[in-house]
Amino acid sequence: MDLMQRIKGAFPSVPSFSVPSKSNIPFITDSPDEAVKTDTKSLLPKTPQSEKEPTPSKKGAVQKTAPVAEDKAKGAEAEKAKKQIEEREAIRQKEKEAKEREAKLIEQEIDEAADEAAMHAIIDSMLDSCVGVSHRAIDSQHYALDAIQIHSDQLKYAMDDSKAKTSEEKQMQWESVTGALDAKKDAIAVADLDLDTAK
What we know:
The protein is about 75% helix and about 0% strand. It is mainly α.
């Protein structure tokens, strides 16, 4: 008896427990179909409210919106760069058009100056020609007047019988009148032609 008490005193007492009946265990049933239909959710441990999945914080929202803002900023920069390129291209095009207009104006001025110079040259040439023709016409008129005067003098001299002592002298006088007449006709013809040219 002392030995048994010593043994019991050496080991702690084991609490007694009762075996639950089959009806108290939800997943133990007499039928397999009923076991499948048994609600297994009741077997899972309940998760405390504090251990549930945390809701997204504002920091997470900011982190999600940060890429969107960055994309918008990149898009704005790209649009700005595109506008700058278009503006530079427009400026280049305007400068090119201005240079082309300037070149056309210069070419037009050169053509006008060349036309004006050519016109002046033509006018000067015409004036010189007119002056030359006018001078020639004036000279021809003088020659014609001289020829008329010579013919008149020769005619008067031939008609004066006192001027010729022999028939041979008279014949020479009339021959001189005939020559003076021919010279007068030629001089008048040349004078008329030069006068028509000068007109």
